[in-house]
Amino acid sequence: MEERKKGFFGRLVEGLSKTRNNIVSGIDNIFNGFSAIDDDFYEEIEETLIMGDLGIQTTTSIIEHLRQTVKEQHIKEPSECKQILIDSIKKQMDLGENAYEFENRKSVVLVIGVNGVGKTTSVGKLAGQLKDSGHKVILGAADTFRAGAIEQLTEWANRAGVDIISQQEGSDPAAVVYDAVNAAKSRKADVLICDTAGRLHNKKNLMEELKKIDRIIEREYPEAYRENLVVLDGTTGQNALSQARQFMEVAHVTGIILTKLDGTAKGGIAVAIQSELGIPVKYIGIGEKIDDLQKFHAEEFVNALFDVKEE
Fold first, then answer.
1. C-alpha dihedral over 150, 152, 157, 163, to 10 degrees?
2. Separation in Å, CA 36 to CA 31, 60, 64, 81
3. Structural domains of the chain in order of their starting residue, each with its CATH number
4. What is the pTM (predicted TM-score) of this model?
5. Which range has highest mean pLDDT (86-90, 127-131, 262-266, 297-301)?
6. Taking the C-alpha atoms of 277, 280, 285 and 286 in order, what is their torsion angle to the nearest 10 degrees?
7. Residue 6 contacts residue 61 (beta carbons within 8 Å)
8. The sheet that has 137-142: what strands, in order across it?
9. Contact 153, 185 (CB under 8 A)
10. Does residue 263 have a pLDDT over 80?
11. Within 10 A of 303 (CB to CB), how many other CB atoms are there?
């Protein structure tokens, strides 16, 4: 387990290299280039964090915390501010215990996301990991409108060695969920993961569809623990944040899966999502392999972002 953890931390460090080059090299230049802590010093840090997609609101909070600490501790050297900055970013991301309760109970996980964010892939990877850790998993192919979505999920189900419940392309997603819920109950599955649509351009339809799915689960499986995960593409930066906000309007979002962090300089968006929305990033994707989707730990993430060696 320790080896896996180290391996993932190494991949996380590697995966965040573009973001780190964007943020950290800029920060280091500031700490080394300034001889005094003044307004210009703070402005430079602020600009670097915003460019790394931490967002204005989050960055403002971090800078305020930095100013306050510098004042309280009478810090004079810019170089002494780096650790305070790292600690402040960790503090922004701390949402208390980042629970994965659904793993311990009979549960239904709805996974929502627009086309192209890696939603179906994330469902498949999550199913594979849960299966490997001894859970009985069933997949529900309720994203019935996207061409190829059912085939893609079926392929993942085969790869993960789990059952899948599906209907024809274009069929009613709620009907698929109904079948999947009943299959989960009769086959005594631990976790039912439903791949659902995320047509944000037509929010009204999406809202109605999710409400209908919700009613079916409430009626057919009231004892199930519920988890609603939204998948966001890390490469889209602030766009991902506004997508998350829109999904929050149509569903009770309990967590975020942030994908494609290995290909982006905008990894700071993970900080912004947790800080501004108060919704935990529960999983991050840093590659194509099944174990490249991992549980998210803020401390580990910020250490990897700043290449702080873990003890």
1. 10
2. 9, 20, 17, 11
3. 2-93 (1.20.120.140), 101-305 (3.40.50.300)
4. 0.88
5. 127-131
6. 80
7. no
8. 163-165, 137-142, 191-196, 107-112, 225-233, 255-259, 281-285, 293-295
9. no
10. no
11. 19
pLDDT band at 129 (very low <50, low <70, confident <90, very high): very high
Largest CA distance in the chain: 69
- Return d(Cα 39, Cα 171) in angstroms, integer: 59
Question: Of 188, 183, 177, nearest to 215 (Cα)?
Answer: 177
pLDDT tens profile 29-70? 888 888 889 999 999 999 988 888 888 888 999 999 999 999
Where does residue 140 fall: left (phi above 0), alpha (psi -120 to 50 degrees), or beta otherwise?
beta
- Band (pLDDT 50/70/90 cuts) for residue 310 is low
- Give the separation between CA 282 and CA 197, rounded to whole angstroms: 20
The whole-angstrom distance between residue 199's C-alpha and the CA centroid of its chain comes to: 19
Q: Which helix (H) or strand (E) holds 140?
A: strand 137-142
